Amino acid sequence: MPNVQEKIFEIVAEQAVLDVSDVTLESTLEDLGIDSLGLVESIFAIEEAFDIQVPFNANDPSESDFDISTVASIVKAVRGLVNEPAA
């Protein structure tokens, strides 16, 4: 299993067309220039990379149980999903 933080930095950097070094835990997706389509593509990439199902509603992100406010919150949320036992 890839390191969660490193992999998310890679995915976010790829979507933002930035170097991984430009991504920090404090970065917001907006800071990085990731729009709603980029967000959806990031979620798909995260699901694929970690073989998880992200509880995210692209039509209503505020109603999702997946915190996308900062890169750190995404890392934390993914870690929670990765550590959850399969249902």
Automatic annotation (TrEMBL):
Carrier domain residues: 2-82
Any Gene Ontology biological process: Kdo2-lipid A biosynthetic process
Molecular function as annotated in GO: acyl binding; acyl carrier activity
Pathways involved: Glycolipid biosynthesis; KDO(2)-lipid A biosynthesis
Lineage summary: Bacteria, Pseudomonadati, Pseudomonadota, Alphaproteobacteria, Rhodobacterales
Keyword Lyase: no
Keywords: Fatty acid biosynthesis, Fatty acid metabolism, Lipid biosynthesis, Lipid metabolism, Phosphopantetheine, Phosphoprotein
Protein name as annotated: Acyl carrier protein AcpXL
Alphabetical list of InterPro entries matching this protein: ACP (IPR003231), ACP-like_sf (IPR036736), PP-bd_ACP (IPR009081), Ppantetheine_attach_site (IPR006162)
Annotated Gene Ontology cellular component terms: cytosol; membrane
